[in-house]
């Protein structure tokens, strides 16, 4: 699960790459671009945390995940790349919501209290991102 959180389709690496893309795409709006930049840094921190956990569990913390019985590397093709503001913000919001659902499910399945506490703390960050994207959608796309 930690490897999937790092390099799966719905992963921290997917969020980082998408938010860097969004930051570059909308650089004419310094405020919005800056928000994506700051959120991408938070997602990089999450990526690092999951990598540390995976390594401590004896896994190689590459950007990969299990698919069936084999390892599959992360791909930029996992992301959608909308170019208009409404779809761009909606895409980011939906990704954050899916991430919260994924991590909540992991909290129910994982028995290690320390990992669960890390997940719960990361969920708090993702919920802040949801709030930010909801607010931006209201502000930019009324």
Shape assignment = globular
How many separate structural domains? 1
Rg from Cα: 15 Å
Q: In CATH terms, what is the architecture?
A: Up-down Bundle
GO molecular function: ferric iron binding
Domain Rubrerythrin diiron-binding: 11-136
Organism: [Clostridium] hylemonae DSM 15053
Protein name: CotJC family protein
List keywords for this structure.
142 residues, mainly alpha, 2 strands, 70% helix
Offer a concise description of the structure.
This protein is mainly α and 142 residues long.
Please give a structural write-up:
This protein is mostly helical. It has one domain (2-140): Ferritin, core subunit, four-helix bundle (Ferritin, Up-down Bundle), CATH 1.20.1260. The chain has helices at 2-7, 12-25, 30-56, 85-109, 113-140, and strands at residues 64-67, 70-73. It has a two-stranded antiparallel sheet with strand order 1-2. Helix 2 (12-25) runs antiparallel to helix 4 (85-109), helix 3 runs antiparallel to helix 5 and helix 4 packs antiparallel against helix 5 (113-140). The longest helix has 28 residues, at 113-140. The termini are far apart. The model has no long low-confidence stretch (mean pLDDT 97). It holds the Pfam family Rubrerythrin. Residues 11-136 form the Rubrerythrin diiron-binding domain. GO terms for molecular function: ferric iron binding. InterPro entries: Ferritin-like, Ferritin-like_SF, Rr_diiron-bd_dom.
